[in-house]
Design brief:
2 copies of one chain form a homodimer.
Chain A (H helix, E strand, L loop, with lengths): L43 H7 L2 E5 L4 E3 L7 E7 L2 E6 L5 E7 L4 E2 L12 E4 L3 E7 H10 L1 H25 L4 H18 L6 E3 L4 H8 L3 H13 L3 E4 L2 E4 L2 H11 L21
Chain A binds a DNA duplex through α6.
DNA sequence: CGTCGTCTTGAACTGCGTCAAATTACGTGG
DNA sequence: CCACGTAATTTGACGCAGTTCAAGACGACG
């Protein structure tokens, strides 16, 4: 997710799995890295001045909705969120999930208005950081500027990962990718990367993977049968990580086979 | 694409269609808005100092590749680009297209290294803007800081659009969406939004839509037969825009039907 | 213990991927 | 200017993965 600087996330086929950061926020103090190294080598006190306050968000309550005014960033302290847009038929399209340490709100900077809705998947808590303060801090602390830009850029990389996931030809690959992505994020937060609880419903997963609830169910059944994982209700155990990775690679084969461009000029006819 | 501030792009089902900007870059002077209002109300001269130079990129040559060092942004002056990553099987996954006025390189900020490859679809030209200069300008000119952040945020919104496109259940919807997106972008550049040339191959389109070349071919044939468009070779004419929009909406119906959440607390069972 | 919602399972249908071959476009060299 | 070769694009036939519709199972809570 957008925890930064996401220490050199590798470009392999699998979502980034940065090491767990360990910078305690003086405000939060929780055991989660609630603001992952964004400020620590610089001026920690500066950050604390930036934080306007904390806010609790009940399960299923929204942090903000599409068309709400944007003037505040949120850093997830505890809990998880889903971000989604509503398509014409009022169907949710989950665009991403947020976990502790992630920064929420970048989408609003462009227009001053939020373009999507962010809803808590469980009882959660966030730090509020007014955009005005962030701007000021960026001006005053060059290092903070860098870190902040890096954070924003990292969310772009996350989006790319999601895009890659969505273009995997088989659902097996997508689901495997999704599980590894969760695993990596739990690792980043300092939890087990082989056993964790899903905060999201089957519907949310289906939406995120670009498929239906039923198919998600069947995917789970199949993965369980193959002993790659053990998913029961919302508990997940990863039993055979290698098998999951293999599922991504195998299914990725020749789709839109633009041949691997080792040289710069790939063979294609010029346009008249 | 990431031309900014993307004047309040609407949240409707269709990719953003900002109005055509009209700020001439003193350096480029081309009739395309090569740097869309990023600097104009502030200090135009400041920008010109920022631009290190221009660079020509031949068709099929790369602006940069994955793992190349990042230290420069590029603003597309003329031509078009595709950005893609290679999956394990060395297959291209097109993540986005760039058109004149778009800023390229945000992905590199997070790690200092590019995560994808950007290749010219036709003979092109870009302005080079060193990251160091941008940082300095952000520090010196608060308004520029705002604009730059807005630009970055806008690319995030673009990615969301792509994600939404990819989760449309039917290929018809995706392709319709793609055509409207191109149309909107040509409009933004001041060209006709009903007749234009595709810079990308069928393969690239297939990759962008998450499908195969063959299916793209069939989509085109079907759309032609329905007189929604007239696509011949790489020339596109949009004949019935309403029909295209309808194709998106119709196919968007109940997929992962999380009911429209008008109230904040949508009905779902608490987790034990 | 009954109701409600989520999740799972079943069966039938179909859109799209896959493989294969034909066709067209375009650049090259004669 | 024409003939040829390469690569892109189109078209056809077939099979399967995944959607759809429908019903049932499970767990939570009143």
């Amino acid at each position: 997710m957008n925890a930064i600087p996401r220490d050199r996330q590798e470009a392999a086929g699998v979502p980034g799995c940065g090491a767990a950061a360990d910078n305690r926020c003086a405000l939060c103090g929780g055991r989660e890295a609630c603001l992952p190294s964004l400020f620590h080598s610089d001026d920690n006190a500066a950050f604390e001045r930036m934080v306007a306050g904390k806010r609790r968000i009940e399960r299923h309550a929204s942090l903000f909705r599409a068309n709400d005014k944007f003037d505040t960033f949120y850093i997830v302290r505890v809990g998880q969120f889903k971000e989604f847009v509503l398509d014409p038929a009022s169907v949710q399209r989950v665009v991403r999930f947020y976990m502790p340490g992630d920064i929420v709100g970048f989408d609003g900077v462009a227009t001053g208005v939020h373009s999507s809705r962010v809803m808590a998947l469980e009882d959660s808590e966030v730090c509020e950081v007014p955009y005005a303060q962030v701007r000021k801090a960026m001006h005053d602390h060059p290092r903070f500027l860098d870190r902040f830009l890096a954070a924003m850029s990292a969310t772009l990389l996350d989006q790319h990962q999601h895009t890659r996931l969505l273009t995997l030809p088989s659902l097996d690959g997508r689901f495997a990718c999704f599980l590894l992505y969760l695993s990596a994020n739990y690792a980043r937060m300092g939890y087990s990367d082989t056993a964790f609880r899903l905060a999201m419903s089957r519907s949310d997963i289906g939406s995120y993977l670009g498929t239906t609830v039923e198919t998600v169910s069947r995917l789970i059944a199949r993965f369980n049968a193959q002993h790659a994982v053990r998913i029961e209700r919302r508990m997940v155990q990863i039993l055979d990580r290698a098998k999951l990775i293999a599922m991504i690679d195998n299914t990725a084969a020749d789709r839109c086979p633009v041949p691997a461009p080792t040289e710069d000029r790939q063979p294609e006819m010029p346009v008249h």
